[in-house]
Amino acid sequence: MSQQIYFLNGPNANLYGLDKNGTYGSESFVSIGERCQRRAESHGVIVHFRQSNHEGVLVDWIQEARQSAAGLIINAAGLTYTSVPILDALLMFDGPIIEAHMSNIWKREPFRHHSMVSKAATGVIAGLGAMGYELAIDAVVNLMEARVA
One matching Pfam family, short form (predicted)? Predict the structure, then answer.
């Protein structure tokens, strides 16, 4: 059976691509998810690419990942800067965690410069758009393999 990773996306990520001139580019969330599926398949892993606008659902998925996933990627979106419950759930996850952001959060508003998620993350990828999502899959798979070796 293939190893599994969870790729969780927070509030409003489902709107990617709807504002062609917006911060997050023109590619749709569905299209980005398909790219991530292909990248995961190229590594021989299963990715559960999910999005919710609700903090509790994200916490539930992180807890679910504890039982079935070897790695986790999260773009908690607006909850990145405020969610202690997401941080607490991530701290209970035993595998590598990549924090991913489509935009460079350090070039944006000052409140985005502090991430609650980073306290639990193994690493952070930000500012590379959808390519960063694919790189996050590469990174988490490499970290998972390093743990097994």
Answer: DHquinase_II
Contact status, residue 132 vs residue 100, Cβ threshold 8 Å: yes
Catalytic residues: 24, 101
Domain ranges of the chain: 4-148
Q: Is 77 helix (H, G, I), strand (E, B) or coil?
A: helix
The pLDDT of residue 15: 86
Q: Which helix (H) or strand (E) holds 62?
A: helix 55-68
Across the beta sheet with 123-126, the strand order is: 46-51, 4-9, 71-75, 97-101, 123-126
The residue assigned the tokens 């690419």 is: 49
Which residues are annotated binding-site positions for substrate? 75, 88, 102-103, 112
| 4-148 under CATH 2.170.16.10, yes or no | no
Decide if pLDDT at 113 tops 70.
no
48/66 Cα distance (integer angstroms): 13
